[in-house]
Write a structure and sequence with these properties.
This protein has 255 residues and is of the alpha/beta class. The chain has a single domain, classed as 3-Layer(aba) Sandwich (Rossmann fold), CATH 3.40.50.1110. It is 35% helix and 14% strand. The chain has seven helices and seven strands; from the N terminus they run αββααβαβαβαββα. The strands form two sheets. The chain has a five-stranded parallel sheet, sandwiched between helices. α4 runs parallel beside α5. It is globular. The termini are far apart.
Length: 255
């Protein structure tokens, strides 16, 4: 009996029972993915909703995404190096940029297309050098319908750059751009509002004058987008699939 007790104690101290040997998914990205401050709620990054899809003792999600960051500023501010320094063999890095890289009118974050491409390749190479696994993600769509209810993409060439880099470097890619477009069209011009940070005046003390934000997500929208990322994980047959938990999907409205 004492022998069995010692074995059990060793098991606990090894960290296995607490998930210390777990795979880590590091998230590198912008505000659509990032953890939000209390004063910004109910705004929610889709990366915040990802952990619930995994068995925590086997997979941990570590969200390093930050508001307003492009590939350029993620590197220059040392945010990327923080991830690289922690990587161990078998970890994953989910890389989703584009919203800020493409913003020509915001010189503090704009990244020209060729620099964007080079930065993505750098990310891939540095993750692989640590024997970890890079996963590229195209940027999620903004909610953009015209007066006739026709959906419009606002991202220009940047999603195609991600696709090309993924193909050229044989990197798994989750096409959040096309997946989120499909969902927004399913919801339509009005019902898609519930996926984004859309509040009437007086509805929430953080936004006393209300807000109509077509880029950042509500808790429901974050859940839906995280579900799309998991859909992509399944489609790619990543090793992470075996650690997924069953989470009820958010159903689009009947139209």
């Amino acid at each position: 009996m004492r022998y069995l007790s010692v074995l059990f104690l060793i098991f606990l101290l090894s960290g296995v029972g607490f998930g210390k040997g777990a795979i880590t998914i590091y998230l590198a990205g912008d505000s659509t993915m990032a953890q939000k401050l209390p004063e910004k709620r109910p705004e929610t990054g889709w990366g915040e909703a990802l952990q619930q899809f995994f068995r925590e003792e086997r997979v941990r999600v570590e969200n390093h995404a930050k508001n307003g960051r492009s590939t350029r500023t993620f590197i220059s501010e040392g945010l990327w190096q923080e991830i690289v320094a922690k990587l161990k063999k078998g970890d994953y890095v989910f890389i989703q940029f584009g919203h800020n890289d493409e913003s020509k009118n915001k010189v503090d974050r704009y990244t020209p297309p060729e620099d964007f491409r080079r930065n993505l390749v750098r990310f891939i190479n540095e993750v692989r050098a640590k024997k970890a696994i890079p996963i590229l993600l195209t940027p999620v769509m903004r909610r953009s319908f015209d007066s006739s209810g026709v959906f419009h993409d606002t991202h220009g060439e940047y999603p195609d750059i991600v696709r090309a880099v993924a193909a050229d470097n044989h990197v798994p890619m989750i096409d959040m751009h096309r997946k989120s477009e499909r969902v927004l069209k399913q919801y339509g011009p009005e019902d898609s509002r519930k996926l984004f940070l859309q509040l009437r005046p007086g509805e929430n003390p953080n936004y006393p004058n209300g807000i109509e934000d077509n880029t950042h997500f509500s808790p429901v929208g974050a859940q839906v987008m995280a579900g799309l990322a998991v859909e992509g994980i399944r489609e790619l047959h990543l090793g992470l699939v075996k650690y997924l938990r069953r989470v009820e999907p958010v159903s689009p409205p009947h139209r």
